[in-house]
Amino acid sequence: MTDRVAAAVDELTHRLVHDLVRPPNADAGTPDARWHALARLRVLVQVEQAVYELEQGAAHAAAVAGANYPEIGRAARMTRQGARRRWPGLSHARPGPPPRPSPRSPRP
User: Fold this and answer.
1) d(Cα 86, Cα 75) in Å, to the nearest integer?
2) What single-letter DSSP state applies at residue 95?
3) CA distances from 61 to 19, 29, 76, 97 (A)
4) CA angle in degrees (0–180, nearest 5) for 50-52-57
5) Distance between CA atoms of 93 and 108, rounded to whole angstroms?
6) Helix, strand or coil for residue 65?
7) What is the rounded distance in angstroms from the CA atom of residue 31 to the CA atom of residue 17?
8) Cα–Cα dist 37/94, whole Å
9) Residues 6 or more apart from 72 whose CB is under 8 A from it?
10) Shortest CA distance to 23 belongs to which of 5, 36, 11?
């Protein structure tokens, strides 16, 4: 499944770069490889933030639906303790939108 998701994200980022990111000299022709790589990186960072927020919402929804930390951990391919550290407070989750996550810290 990871390969299929990676392929879909790759296709999506290429489309987003093409549709949303305007080259600095759009009238001068095709953007250079450096510009394209940087634009794609910018889009991928935004995709990562969106996935993080969706992940938070999915964990919250699972908890509201009655899932416990061991089940959430298995779904996220981690231990119960890992799930508890990643999503603290899910045992008290209530119906409704999940709390708004803070922006994810950059990885080292």
Assistant:
1) 13
2) S
3) 32, 47, 14, 8
4) 95
5) 30
6) coil
7) 11
8) 42
9) 59, 62, 63, 83, 87, 90
10) 36
Phi, psi of 51 (to 5 degrees): -65, -40
Angle at 52 between CA 33 and CA 2, to 5 degrees: 70
pTM of the model: 0.73
Q: Is the distance from CB of 46 to CB of 20 less than 8 angstroms?
A: no
CA distance 79 to 72: 9
Q: Are 62 and 75 in contact (CB under 8 A)?
A: yes
Distance CA 2, CA 6 (A): 6
Burial 86-98 (b: 16+ CB within 10 A, else e): bbeebeebeeeeb
Task: Give 29-76 pLDDT, tens digit per residue.
Answer: 566 778 888 888 999 999 999 999 999 999 999 999 999 999 999 999
